[in-house]
Amino acid sequence: MSYRIFLAGASGAIGRRLTPILHNAGHYVCGSTRSKAKAGTLRSLGADPVVVDVFDATALSRAVASARPDIVIHQLTDLPRDLDPREMGAAIIRTARIRGEGTRNLVRAAIAAGAHRLVAQSIAWAYAPGAEPHAETDPLDAGAEGDDGINVQGLIALEELTLKSPPLDGVILRYGQLYGPGTSSDQPSNYAPIHVDAAAYAALLAIDHGDTGIYNIAQSNRHIATEKARVELGWTPDFRLPA
Ligand SMILES: NC(=O)c1ccc[n+]([C@@H]2O[C@H](COP(=O)([O-])OP(=O)(O)OC[C@H]3O[C@@H](n4cnc5c(N)ncnc54)[C@H](OP(=O)(O)O)[C@@H]3O)[C@@H](O)[C@H]2O)c1
Fold first, then answer.
1. pLDDT averaged over consecutive 10-residue blocks of the chain (243 residues)?
2. Is pTM beyond 0.70 here?
3. By alpha-carbon position, which residue is closest to atom 12 of ligand 1?
4. Cα–ligand 1 centroid distance for 175 (angstroms)
5. Which of 35, 132, 200, 240 lies deepest, with the highest CB count within 10 Å?
6. Ligand 1 nearest-atom number relative to CA 91
7. CB 49, CB 97: distance < 8 Å
8. How far apart are CA 115 and CA 123, in angstroms?
9. CB distance 126 to ligand 1 below 6 Å
């Protein structure tokens, strides 16, 4: 089955790997960036590029409507490329705004455009302290303070909007810590690592595999349970794009 897909954040670390995966699987991809300068790159990766800011609700609705998507994929964050600790405070605030206000705009645009499914990026290291490995049913750390608190409130907003906006079927991918091309690390982290290609592959599967709900996406590790994605999405952490 081939779908029409609006990929919000096609120019990001996951988006740049996901675009050719979707295109090569036979789907039409309309991929977003805020930057006209990146449109050519998105086109070369297999997307029909669209330049739009998620905070401009009117322009976003127009862009999503004109893509006529069956499925919307949300891979938006606003983090420094190298995760420079000096820039992270401001980046966490910007990203929390994307996850709240930005997701709300994207959900409205997706519903108005007639999309039936929304697949959204979350993270797998925001669970409340408790027994490990954490399953998807474990609570997020809603009592966190400072930057962690801003982060978790953004995630809670994103996940609720994604999962509770009928008639959209919402799928949340709680990614572990990315490594690989275009990320801040060549090597897996010690916590719950995930290669960026395998992260993108999970988004490909999530467009038509698995029920609405939450899936942890990480390599085998002792902190986060990952069986659900393997069983219900048919996901494997070994997927890599050809070099
Ligand atoms: N789970 C994880 O470990 C995880 C998850 C995400 C990111 N990261 C890390 O964070 C770093 C940066 O990530 P990244 O390369 O994906 O870049 P990013 O700057 O976080 O951008 C991600 C995507 O969101 C888009 N975007 C940001 N703000 C937007 C807005 N207001 N409206 C519309 N689109 C907007 C960007 O488009 P533009 O082209 O307009 O900038 C881009 O397509 C990397 O090191 C990455 O590995 C880690």
1. 97 98 98 98 98 98 98 97 93 98 98 98 98 98 97 98 98 98 95 97 98 98 98 98 91
2. yes
3. 81
4. 14
5. 200
6. 20
7. no
8. 24
9. no
